[in-house]
Amino acid sequence: MSVELALSDAVSDEAPARVDGRSRRIGAWLGATLLVLVLAVLVFPEWFSSGRPNATDVRHAFTPPSLGHLFGTDELGRDVYTRVVYGAGISLGIGVLAVGIGVVGGVLLGLLSGLGRGWVDTVAMRVVDVLLAVPELLLALLVVAIIGRGSLNVALAIGVAAVPHFARLVRGQALSVLRSEYVEAAKILGVPPVRYLGRHVLPNVGGPLVVMASIGTGSAITAAAGLSVLGLGPPAPSPEWGAMLSEGQAYLGTAWWIAVFPGLAVVVVVLSVTLLGRGVQARRLR
Amino acid sequence: MRAGRRLLAGLLVLWGAATLTFLALHLIPGDQVDAILGPSLSVTPQLRAQITAEYGLDHPLVVQYLDYLGRLLRGDLGQSYQRDMPVGRLLAEQIGPTVQLALSAALAAFVVAILAVLVTAGSGRFGRWLASVIELLAVSVPNFWLGLILLTVFSFRFPIFPAVGAAGPLGLVLPTATLALPLGGVLAQVIRQELELADGRPFAISVRARGASEVHLTLRHTLRHAVTPVVTLSAWVIGSLIGGTVLVENIFVRPGIGRTLVGAVVSRDTPVVTAIVLLSAVAFVVVNTVVDLLYPIIDPRLRAESRT
Q1: Is A75 helix (H, G, I), strand (E, B) or coil?
Q2: Which residues of chain B make contact with A18, given a CB cutoff of 8 A?
């Protein structure tokens, strides 16, 4: 998410869109197809693998990738492919939960500051400035240092670190809608705030928020896997992709497949989310 | 006037960051004395009382807060809970390798980006498509996975570079590449867009009309326009390098701030974590302020704009 934001800040507004509409559309379709496949793996893992993720078979430890074991086996003879399939739910779950936390926190803080104006706005935006001055990963690590490790805590940490980005977006959108003539008209007509907030402000904030959340999901999944790689995610037997990668790193010299395939799964998911997000963004801008 | 406002805004952010870290130190669930003592076996009431007095935990929170700010102003970052030493000294010992890695990665990323743009400039539809695919990969591939692939290929399959540690310039190559390639992809994206923009400007037409070659036009004129917006990305680059070094130092088992940080998170040595967060906020604010103040000097057009 921060990459996309940084880019939009740096590039002049008049710069030509480098990728033409057709390749964007093809990219979006590719992303959507991949994502449907990933979701199918997530919801019906048993369709994709008949094994169990934690079934050990020490006699066949460190088997290289083959037809029997597509991604090979790890140090306990567990099938890496089966583990990647069953890990999808955990890895994606943490990422999506984190984005959800970021969106909810961002909407609350952004609306509070957009509607509150005055000193509420000033204080809220100063807080956002402070949080934006710290890299997201460091902010997430600070949260983990306070609340401890584990999958839920990792999701919470990444979500909290994303809050300032969403808050800034929501506030900007809310302010521009609140200053618009139709909201002025609604106010003059005596429409209660709850009505015009629901009818005008939220729908206008929603569009850009969905785009940002969809692009942000990719970086949230990456960040979650990253924290797991650092050993802060779910504990040992979990087939979470970052945790698998971290365990497999010890055998990189002899059995590269243990760490490489879970990482590849992260890459595929992030790529599909990014392609789809960029496609949606291009549509909105048109 | 403008400079004064910028400095004040920067100081406000730093004060906010200090307040944030103070809150983080006191938000830890459970007793702070327990956090300081760690999982030790026998804790006598005398020891608890001694720790409480030593850290001033019996004072009101406001007093502790002002105390904390005062110590920060004097450059005292506090005492590590786990290692019996001041956090400042601990970080001073570790910062060398991290700065070295971050600087070499920043330099490499910039060089990679410029080369990539120059090579693909004017290479037609296919070149542009290929460049955008590579740039998409660069922003989508997590650096921890890239590091792993580089290790597998260049340390284990073909043992060219050491897999572990910071021994010598060879040990710096793979970690630098891991950080620099994704960053280079982002920078290349920005530079390419700006280069195409500058290429259509009237000054480019007039340079062409003088009969100058395309190479001359790019190197002497348009590239300069394309590179200046990168300066506004500096603070973001610093942030992503700080975040990136955390993962890369752990993947490559290099000493440095990132390794120290993760160790401190695991052992819940909060003063070390908050100090690193604070230092990174200082780096961000300083770079941002400097860039803001320098930008009109780098880009003369802004000076003309502010005068009118």
Answers
A1: coil
A2: 128, 132, 189, 192-193, 196
